[in-house]
Every structure is written in structure tokens, then in C-alpha cells.
Design brief:
The structure holds two protein chains of two kinds. By secondary structure, chain A is of the alpha+beta class. Helix content of chain A is 37%, strand content 26%. Chain B contains four helices and four strands, in the order αβααβββα. In chain B, strands 2-1-3-4 form a four-stranded mixed beta sheet. In chain B, a hairpin with a 6-residue loop joins strand 3 and strand 4. Classes of the chains: A alpha+beta, B alpha+beta.
Chain lengths: 182, 124
């Protein structure tokens, strides 16, 4: 993966394959504490303790097409390379929370990348799921929820290409502002 | 763009979209485009491919196309993979797709019904 936002996309896909109907994605960038963290919380079917432990082993997967599962191991590796780590907390039939943290100033930290595209792609492919995206940057917060959006859209599906285009532009501009841009 | 202005724009887009949906109702035969979004697909560039497809559909006002995803199907070295399934036609799988190829697949195959043979999966 070239950027952290692609890991986010990949890990959220795990949540969706676990039957999640609501996924919360939270990014925190804190220069004072020198931390960047990513948290993905879903209400999918969850894992028992043993499975959760095995989830970062690349030679463990629940899929039958192949013998490896690289999503979480790649994220764990990216975190480790940047002075951080990951934690998986899961309860069967309740959901799973994956948290990854990184040393923000670390030279091997991958760029966060294009979160606007990651969120838009998820909404386009999973219109029935609710996504709540919170991005905290220093003392500023941006929050985006597809629940509110769906109400406003009335009967128009959220994955309509015109709507997805609006979401992409809206997120881009909002995230730009969060970074201090105009 | 302020938030309020954005919301106003969204409502305009909603009304615009609604008109297109109404036209769509009597058209049951939709083309499906399926993008491989497993770990292998994503790391090979599937997100940019997906966004290019959606953008092209929007630009061309295509209302009879549905875009969905699939996970890893075990052909990781050919990712990003894109399937085009036209009504009553066999599935066509494109390999090593990039955003530029994706736009052409929409233009040439989805719109003009011409399969781009040289990008289709080799016999394996």
C-alpha cells in the first residue's frame, strides 16, 4: 500500500465482509503528542479472542480462495515501521475495533493520502451501510455522516454518481480546510 | 465552498438525479461493472480505477450502469481487475486496469458495445 488511506479502505472492507451495517472511521493527527492514529469500529459479526489474535498473522484467513490474508498484517507492518503498533478488540456478534497508531514525525511514516477518495469509494460501493468519518487535526474536528446525508437525499440513492461526485468534492474541500487551506 | 452552500448544491444535485432515476424505471436491463477490491486489488490501484469509472459514468450521464465490488478471486497478479457484464451477454474480465483504461472501457465497451480484446484476461 502506498498510503494509509488505502489501508483504511482495505480494513473497512473487512468490516463490510463481516456484515457491518455501521462503520466509524476516526483519524487523529496530533503533533504535540507526535501521534497519528486510525481507528475503525464496526458492528459486524466480530471474532472470538483466538481468531482476533490470529488476524495479524499473514498465514491466517477465513477465505477459501487462497491461504493468505494480508490486510491487517500490512497495516501492522506499516505501523511498526513508523514506531507504532496496532490493537484489535473484538466481541463476537457485537463488532470489531481496529486501532493503529504511528509516530507522526517518523521518517518511515506513509503519507495519509487521499481520505476523500477512500470514503467516497466506500459509500459508492456500500450505499446500504452507514459511515461516520471523524477527522481530528490538532484542535480542529471534521465530521461526516452518511445518515444525515441520506435524509437529505430522500429517495435518491447515496451511490448515485452525481451524489458521489458531490461527496468527493465536499470531503476534499473540508479536509483542505482542516489542514489550514482556504 | 461553505458548508451551507455545499448543502444547497447537494439539494440541486438530488433533484437533478431524481429526474434521471424516473427515466430509469422502465429500464430493467442494466450493465454491471465489478471492480476487484480485495487487498491485492486495492494495493494495485483499484480505488483510482473505481473513481475513474464513477467519474466517467457521471460525465456521460449513464443511468443504466451499476458499479459493485468483489473481493480477491485468486488472480492477484492481474489486479486491478474489472468485469463488465452487459445484459444477456457473457462476463468480460479486464486485467491490469488503470484509470485511463477504465475510462476507455466505459466509453468503448459499456457505451459502444465494443469489447477491447487486447485488455481482456488471457487464457489461463
Amino acid at each position: 500500500m502506498k498510503e494509509l488511506s488505502l489501508h483504511v479502505l482495505d480494513i473497512v472492507e473487512n468490516s463490510l465482509r463481516a456484515g457491518a451495517t455501521e462503520v466509524e472511521i476516526k483519524i487523529v493527527e496530533d503533533s504535540k503528542k507526535d501521534v497519528l492514529s486510525i481507528e475503525i469500529k464496526d458492528n459486524g459479526r466480530g471474532m472470538d479472542e483466538e481468531t482476533a489474535k490470529k488476524a495479524i498473522d499473514p498465514f491466517f484467513t477465513t477465505r477459501t480462495e487462497r491461504k493468505v490474508g494480508l490486510g491487517l498484517p500490512l497495516l501492522a507492518q506499516a505501523a511498526k515501521a513508523a514506531g507504532g503498533g496496532i490493537a484489535i478488540q473484538s466481541t463476537p456478534s457485537k463488532g470489531t475495533t481496529v486501532r493503529a497508531w504511528f509516530k507522526k514525525s517518523h521518517i518511515d511514516l506513509q503519507p495519509l493520502g487521499d481520505m476523500a477518495k477512500t470514503i467516497s469509494a466506500l459509500v459508492a460501493l456500500h450505499p446500504e451501510v452507514d459511515f461516520i468519518y471523524t477527522h481530528v487535526k490538532e484542535d480542529r474536528v471534521f465530521c461526516f455522516s452518511t445518515k444525515e446525508l441520506k435524509e437529505r437525499l430522500q429517495e435518491v440513492p447515496i451511490n448515485n454518481p452525481l451524489v458521489i461526485d458531490w461527496i468527493l468534492r465536499f470531503l476534499k474541500e473540508s479536509l483542505n480546510k482542516l489542514s489550514g487551506g482556504a | 465552498m461553505g458548508v451551507i452552500k455545499s448543502i444547497e448544491e447537494l439539494e440541486k444535485i438530488r433533484d437533478q438525479a431524481r429526474e434521471l432515476i424516473n427515466l430509469r424505471k422502465d429500464n430493467e436491463n442494466k450493465t454491471r461493472i465489478v471492480v476487484g477490491m480485495g487487498t491485492c486489488g486495492i494495493s494495485a490501484g483499484a480505488r483510482e480505477v473505481l473513481m475513474a469509472i464513477l467519474d466517467e459514468i457521471k460525465k456521460r450521464n449513464l443511468t443504466d450502469v451499476v458499479v459493485t465490488e468483489t473481493g480477491c478471486i485468486g488472480m492477484c497478479r492481474f489486479e486491478p481487475l474489472v468485469d463488465v457484464i452487459k445484459p444477456n451477454q457473457p462476463k468480460v474480465t479486464y486485467v491490469n486496469v488503470n484509470p485511463e483504461k477504465a475510462r476507455q472501457i466505459v466509453a468503448r465497451h459499456v457505451v459502444n458495445n465494443q469489447v477491447i480484446d487486447e485488455w481482456v484476461i488471457p487464457n489461463i
